[in-house]
Amino acid sequence: MNLNIYLRKSVYLMLVLALGTLNSCSEEVNENPLVATNVDAAFTITPVVGAMNTYLLTAQPKGVIVSHWDTGDGASPGKMNQVISLPDAGTYTVTHTAYGAGAATGTSSQQIVVAQTDPAKGNLVQGGNFATAADQAKWTSAQLSPSGAAFWSYGTNGATIHLPGGGAQEGIYQAIEVVKDREYTIDMTISCPSGLDETWFEVYAGTSVPKPGVEYNDNVVMGISTWDGCGTSKFSGKLSGIGCKKNKVTGTVSNVVKFSESGTIYLVIRSGSNKTGNEPITIKKVEFRGK
């Protein structure tokens, strides 16, 4: 009789331990610490003292691993403490996309009203949106693809470079007047609906005059290069945030340029590809501004 009671108690204890173990495993699966369940994308906006139309965006740090920022031109990777410049008057919606553990995301948006255009940072590029015939006339073809295999097309969505592969390339450019030793920044919005293969997209600010049929290589400032690891998946946003081509002068990824003499320089945008099947690249809002 005592043996039967002992056996029943032993079986009961084993069942309790087994159920407890199953419950523990279930809790571990449901509460996986490697996947965030709620990512807080909240951020603050602080005007930078002494810098007109310049703002510090500060993301709250808890649970946020990566920040992407969008001021209306597409989201680009950035820092947790991101400084932005909005030189032109207008109302801007700033969106922060925060990435947490396990690729979980959260978004938050705020508006910035810029009352006055910064006169020192006016855009020196003419026709940078390519939307009208007058805009398009400000740009000259570099005539690098005599057969027309690679070509630029213009429209309300911007300028689009069509790349058939085989090393075909084409460029466009315009002349800009600059001041000695003053720093300038170059940027534009850029997009492609899919990743590129063996493709380059480069921006130059050189003092030499572009010549038809001659590949331009005077002072590369920025760009996309699949060999350097960018542009291999679809993208949309500021070239300064997406590109990985190094600035010839600084040796780093930077969109800042300055010149040893005042006078005329040439803003050249050149792209080409070795592979077929790449989708077109589109640009607009091309800017060349005093820093």
UniProtKB/TrEMBL annotation:
<feature type="signal peptide">
    <location>
        <begin position="1"/>
        <end position="26"/>
    </location>
</feature>
<feature type="domain" description="PKD">
    <location>
        <begin position="69"/>
        <end position="114"/>
    </location>
</feature>
<dbReference type="InterPro" id="IPR000601">
    <property type="entry name" value="PKD_dom"/>
</dbReference>
<keyword id="KW-0732">Signal</keyword>
<protein>
    <recommendedName>
        <fullName>PKD domain-containing protein</fullName>
    </recommendedName>
</protein>
<dbReference type="InterPro" id="IPR035986">
    <property type="entry name" value="PKD_dom_sf"/>
</dbReference>
<dbReference type="InterPro" id="IPR013783">
    <property type="entry name" value="Ig-like_fold"/>
</dbReference>
